[in-house]
Amino acid sequence: MLTYDLDKRGNKTMYEYLYELIKEDIADGKLKADEKLPSKRGLSQHLQISVKTVENAYEQLLLEGYIRSEEKRGYYVNKIDVVTGGAPGYAAPVKRFQEETYLADLTANNIRYDRFPFATWAKVMRETLTDYNTSLLKTVPFNGVLQLREAIADHLNRYRGMQVSADHIIIGAGTEYLYNRLLQLLGPDVKFGVENPGYRKITKIYDENGVNWDYVNIDDKGMKVDELRMKDINVAHVSPEHHFPIGLVMPVARRQELLNWAAAEPGRYIIEDDFDCEFRMQGKPIPSIQSRDRSHRVIYMNTFSKTMVPSLRIGYMVLPEKLMEKYISTMNFYSCTVSGFEQYAMAAFIEKGYFERHIKRLVNDYRGRREKICRMFRESRLSEISTIYQDDAGTHFLLHVKTSLSDVEIKWAVRQKGILINCLSEYCFADADKYHGILVIHYSDMDEATLKLVIAAFEEIFL
To answer: Boundaries of each HTH gntR-type domain copy (predicted)?
Structure first.
């Protein structure tokens, strides 16, 4: 007969403690395979507990497979292969990623959080809770809530010259997620072309998905179309409004050349990555390539993470009709990855004009900050050995330093000063040497005091 001291159960229920004691005896081999357990009534009388307590303990052991019930015969122990010897092993604790702190991070396109309209955004969120109520609890459509898609379509029409239907827009948690969906949509037989130099993260996504890709060199007008033909590229990935990191703006003639290339063969597409398009410091943005597309070959992508806050993971893509039909028929089982609450709030933020005013304030702030930072560099001793290349868009500029240090040595020396920085050569897939000594400076969240320390550090390194 099983004998246990049930007074040691602590805060556990009686049945739970009994279940654990019997399970431990089975695991330790004290109760052998095929050994018969006491009847429920017999064990309850022996331990002076209720039959229900024993029944609950046996039911849990049955559920987990430690024992079996044989009709009209009772309960028997199942054979459990237990590894014996030594104390139970525990996995070593995982070393968690820890963010380091720096004097200045010139690699990240951060925002000035004191420029974000927290009060307005909080107001919109409260109104969203009231206005949409139970709608926030419903399943979000695979392509995103209609209100946000309509607000985006109207925004693109007014600011990018695009005539698009809300039915052609897909909402997702950032462009990285949408790129993965797009790769699946286009299929495995496609060859992608990326700008050289260009944004490296996209090629990492391509590599992770086993995608065939090649780099395509750029000139002073953007991606070379003749290389697209030479390398048998099917899909060209470009950032025409503000190339990163060079910063050039693709002229209309090259945009039309790209459109002609795409229209010439079936299955060719252009991915227009329009990041940073809102941050044009002078004049109006050039209408997007998509706005000139008459052959339905442009896939337009953008995100609110750059203009709002990075934690607001709302990206979107506009698909041509043929690809949208394919997405609906083959991929509409994917759930939308952005909460309905955030989508309704973002829609209201756009519809009520808050987004437009927010962008105007940011552009004015960045324009003044850019001019001041560039002036401080030019007035420093660095001006003797450096040149600033700045364009009229985006939140970074290039600093070309005349130095004998290699780019690797530059990064190491700057790192020792508590500064993170990237060199232009890091964004190259070929011919990196011709960009030696060119630093990519992100300035969007840099204050004057930090900038003075950065300039002093650069002077110590390069002079």
So the answer is: 12-80
Distance between CA atoms of residues 414 and 242, nearest Å: 27
- Convert the pLDDT of each residue in 354-373 to its tens digit: 999 999 998 888 888 888 99
Task: Calculate Rg over the CA atoms of the chain.
Answer: 31
| Burial class, 153, CB count within 10 angstroms (exposed 0-12 / middle 13-18 / buried 19+) | buried
| Chain centroid, CA 127 distance in Å | 28
67-70 and 235-238 beta bridge pairing: unpaired
d(CA 458, CA 463): 8
DSSP string, 352-416: TTHHHHHHHHHHHHHHHHHHHHHHHHHHSGGGGTEEEE--SBSSEEEEEE--SS-HHHHHHHHHH
Q: DSSP label at 280?
A: B
Q: Beta strands of 206-326 (E only): which ranges?
A: 212-219, 222-223, 235-238, 269-273, 298-303, 315-318
User: Has this prediction a pTM greater than 0.70?
Assistant: yes
- Distance, CA of 382 to CA of 455 (rounded, Å): 8
With beta carbons less than 8 A apart as the criterion, state whether 244 and 394 touch: yes
Q: Do 236 and 270 contact (CB within 8 A), yes or no?
A: yes
**Domains, the chain, ranges and CATH?**
6-77 (1.10.10.10), 116-356 (3.40.640.10), 358-462 (3.90.1150.10)
